[in-house]
Amino acid sequence: MNILMIAIKQTHLFGTIFFLEQRNLPYFCFYTNWYIFVRGMKKSERTKQFIIAQTAAIFNKKGFAGTSMADITGATGLTKGAIYGNFANKDAVALAAFAFNYGQIRKTVHTGLQQAKNTREKLMAYVSFYKEYYPTIFEWGGCPILNAASDSDDAHPALFEKASSALESWRNNLISIIEEGLDNGQVKPDVEPEAFADVFISLVEGGILIAKTLGTEKPLLSNLEQLKTQIEQIVI
Amino acid sequence: MNILMIAIKQTHLFGTIFFLEQRNLPYFCFYTNWYIFVRGMKKSERTKQFIIAQTAAIFNKKGFAGTSMADITGATGLTKGAIYGNFANKDAVALAAFAFNYGQIRKTVHTGLQQAKNTREKLMAYVSFYKEYYPTIFEWGGCPILNAASDSDDAHPALFEKASSALESWRNNLISIIEEGLDNGQVKPDVEPEAFADVFISLVEGGILIAKTLGTEKPLLSNLEQLKTQIEQIVI
DNA sequence: TCATGAATATACCAATTGGTATAAACATAT
DNA sequence: ATATGTTTATACCAATTGGTATATTCATGA
Fold first, then answer.
1. A100 in Cβ contact with A62 (< 8 Å)
2. Among A93, A143, B29, B111, which one is least packed by beta carbons within 10 Å?
3. What is the dihedral of CA B118, B121, B124, B126, to 10 degrees?
């Protein structure tokens, strides 16, 4: 099985729930099978989620071509029959894994954004997210968007398309925040939303890349400080 | 052979020289064999260079795991016997290909740097390089450092080490330029060399990533303009 | 021109690749 | 408790993987 647990909980419904080290997802052991603890879910759907959760980091680290079906069966403890019973092919697993990786980040950022009241706080919410979660991102193999984009640009059009839309939606979100700020008078009128969004994304992605490649967190942290300064410079 | 030519030259020494479309490297056809036009080179060394030149872009685009021996023989028109006669294994070809890709960029940047007289011109030389050569870099599959780093971080330690040193040497070069400027009074005294170098690299790499992923050059060009502004802000 | 070492092609290898047909095991509603 | 559809394991497939031994071809100095 090869699963590392960090917590065990008792429930009256399903007995013991094992929390996995990675991502803190609730799994439980029922008879001899592992499930993700979501009631009302079909078994196949739970197995699907299990496969995705167990392989998401592998795809993020090794890339599509570098991840084999043997990696997938090894990480899940399932056989090829189970994998192909739930996914059409390796392609489908990879796409689902990317969606999972991206979704985890998106969800957490979104939560942080909802508490933000103005432009400054919204932009700062991103910075705070990366300040808090960069160790997890590093463990997970780096930014899924960067990885998927540079992994698939030539070889895997479907995955590249997913990565491209993910990046676009992040960029559009930043642009919207700044445009809204321009309308509300919370952002200095000479700021160009697109250019700022590109600098914003570059400082984050570049910081992750340099930090991961040189094996030190400092470049990312210093980039995030720079980003804070730049945010303060454009808001009123 | 699958080689696209853009120019043909006559020489009295070796007959016809065919300039390849990619990288403008001089190859020539002698009898039935192709060579890189470097006199005094052993045949094996020329074949080695030929293999490297023909596969460099493929490795940059497809990554190590995504590039097969069949890709290599297909791109060169040589058989596996020839490849393994000149390289120990696929690993060795990949490492040489990365060194080639990185070397091409390094060489061109270095040429631009030699004409620069002060800190501003030195930093601007980098910007000019990317402004001039970004179409070539895109055709070539993006920045080799970013590609190699994100491709090999988990799967291929030897290649990752190469990518890591390449990034480090780029970063150190930027830091040296700024430190020199601080000593000469050409840079404002409150500038932190490392932090500036990280922002510098991030704007370039991030710009390439966004541009390539979204399929438009604008983000890179706008980042380079931002970089120019930031350079002007730190020099005296 | 020819002998000799260097370079390349050919034919092969075991292992692994992604994928499938089918049989077994399973969960669950009745 | 059992019947039934769902899910998973087993056993297999052709194709491809990286790599090698050996035969052939080639380049070149004498």
1. no
2. B111
3. -80
CB-CB contact of A57 with A75 (8 Å): no
Does A82 contact strand D, using a CB cutoff of 7 Å? yes
For each of the domains in chain A, give its residue range(s) and CATH number, in order of start: 5-87 (1.10.357.10), 98-234 (1.10.357.10)
Give the amino acid at B31.
Y
Chain A nearest C-alpha distance from B230 (Å): 11
At B220, give phi and psi (nearest 5°): -70, -45
| φ and ψ of B67, to 5 deg | -100, 125
Q: Do A167 and B210 touch (CB under 8 A)?
A: yes
The ipTM value here is 0.88
State whether B142 and A151 contact (CB < 8 Å).
no
Q: Which of B201, B149, B224, B219 is nearest to A168 (CA)?
A: B219
Q: Which residues contact B166 (CB under 8 A, 6 or more apart)?
A: B102, B144, B145, B148
Which chain B residue shows the shortest CA-CA distance from A67? B65
Q: Which of A144, A146, A149 lies closest to A159 in space, CA to CA?
A: A149
